Each structure stands twice: as structure tokens, then as C-alpha cells.
Amino acid sequence: MGGGGSALRVCADHRGGINWLSLSPDGQRLLTGSEDGTARLWSTADGQCCALLQGHESYVTFCHLEDEAAFTCSADHTIRRWDVLTGQCLQVYRGHTSIVNRILVANNQLFSSSYDRTARVWSVDEGQMCREFRGHRNCVLTLAYSAPWDLPGAPCMEEAVAGGLLVTGSTDGTAKVWQVASGCCHQTLRGHTGAVLCLVLDTPGHTAFTGSTDATIRAWDILSGEQLRVFREHQGSVICLEREGSGGFRAGPAADPPCSSSQLVNRLVYSGSADRTVKCWLADTGERVRTFTAHRRSVSTLKYHAGTSALQRRSK
Q: Could you tell me if residue 36 is inside a domain?
């Protein structure tokens, strides 16, 4: 991680900073969302721009790419779905009243979080809001979803987890666990003394890991709401979290919202911080395994892939 490397492709048509990157499942396309209000699709084979996605009225905060559709959200309060072959906008999701921070797609549902203090779930095909999750006292930054088949089948829990659980993190210092089917708050995870910037799930273990401006990472049982352990060694805000096996690339102030159901390999969690380091932790004990030091500024991005961790620093 301290070594250099040469660029294989340069994608340089945007007229503003790039806030997020998303790679297609087959690895053939890259989606970028930009400060210039557009998103672009690129061929990973030759670095050429395949499609320009225009329509947002403000900067793109986040993007997500699938094989046949691309999703973007924006400071214009909307989310858009695009055809990856034609670049045509297929759907506009309207309802948020402030900046939309994050989106994720699972089970033909679209989940979103916003500065309007809510998270929402939408029907992907119909574009209609199905449920609003309201209860945070400040903006909702990050979110993750646990599908019902990843959760225990105990009779007392069947109704609560029938539609899966949504976990959200907020600048109010809490994370909340929501019942997707009912919209009810299942648990409020309290303990952080600063904003929750990032979170990842170990869904089969029904455990959430949250990172905060209070310089800690905390592990929680999302069913009981119990705080399991606290990871303390960072000297600055924990900006991004990654577990082995999760996906996504990001560039921005909060963490990627994975919805993968794969278990933690070797039970390791990685964290990137404003203290310019990345740390590797044993998820089950909170013990620090190693610290990576190479960056001169805050680490804002962390991606684990096949035994290699790729990091990105903040340029400001």
C-alpha cells in the first residue's frame, strides 16, 4: 500500500470532481457520479465513455451500477434509474426534501438516505415510495440492508424480520435498525458520542459495525440492540469501514453501504481514519491485528479485494 503504480486507463471527461465510483458485476463497465451533475458510463476495456447520464439539477452524491441499470442520487433531492445501453432515464424517484446521500438496491427495492432526516424504500420498477423511516434527529448518512433469509428464523422474530432489516447511521450519533415490512424502528443503537459516518454488516452473524467521528468503531447485535464491543485506537474520525468480501468503490465523506450476505472471512474488519491510518481488527474480539501507515491525509476510501487492500486519501 505504500508503493507506486501506473494508470491502466484514464477517464477524464467530467468537468467536476468525482464523488463516487461503481463497477458493474461483470467488471465491464464503470459508473462515475460527479460534481458536474452528470454520471458517466465507461468501458473498462478501453476507458472510453459509453454513455452520458444527464438530468440531475445538482451534483451527484452517489451511484450504483448493475448489469442492466444504473442508479444515481443527487443534491437535487431525487434518485434516477438509467438504461446502461442507451443512457436513457427510465425512472425518477421523488419525495425526499433534501440532499439524497446514499442508495442501495436489494430484492427489487431501492433504499435511500437523506439530509431530510429520513430513509425511504421504493419500488424499483414503479418508482413509488413504499415506506418512510422517520426517527433520526439529524441527517441520515449511511445505510445497509439485511435480507430476511440472512436473519434467525425464531418464531418470536419471524414477523419483525419478514421484510428484512434496514440499518441507518446518522449525524445524531445513533444508528437505527428498522423493520422494512412495517417501517417501525426495531432498535436504536446508542453509544457513539459523535456522528455515525459509516457502517458495514456481517449479516449471517446479525452484527453491525459502525464508525464515528468519536474515533471509535462499535459492534452491535442488530436484533437485540446490544453493544458487543468497542474498537479504540484511532486518533481521528473513522471515515470508512470494510470487511473482507464486501463490495463497492467510493469517494466521499461516508462509507459504502454493502448488502452482501457473505460472512466475514477470518473475521477481519478494516477501518480508515482522519488520523491517516488504516487498521485491521479481529471482528470477534476488537483486537487490532495491524496498522497501515502511508498516507499523508485522511483515508476516505477502503476496498478489500482478494487479499489486497486499496486505499484512497482525501485531497483536502
A: yes
